[in-house]
Amino acid sequence: MIFKSYVNHAHNDYLELALEGGLPAILLMVAYAVLLSASSARIRGEPLQKAAFLSLAFLLVHSLVDYPLRTAALAMTFACLNGIVFHRGFADRLNQRDELGKASRRDEDNLLVPARASALPR
Fold first, then answer.
1. Is the pTM of this model over 0.70?
2. Nearest 5 degrees, angle CA 24-CA 30-CA 35?
């Protein structure tokens, strides 16, 4: 701020990326938007991924009126949230948990204290 003039960032990350990056940057932003919207249909069963998706949506909407992703803390949060949203292991573990739950529906499997077969009523 010791100079007479200085360059400030636009208060719209998308506009600044489009103006500085041109067509490749626009194509990358569109590809990311398509991937993110496609992943929203896949994450319906996992609450952690839903929360991460909503947090990403909040940061992306905030980028329309400011440049929050230029702060290191929010950029790192954005990267971690993307890792959670696009991780495929959550769905696999959810399916395994459902399969294990269906396999062990017998009452003696749900006891807190193991019982011997001779101690069960006939």
1. no
2. 125
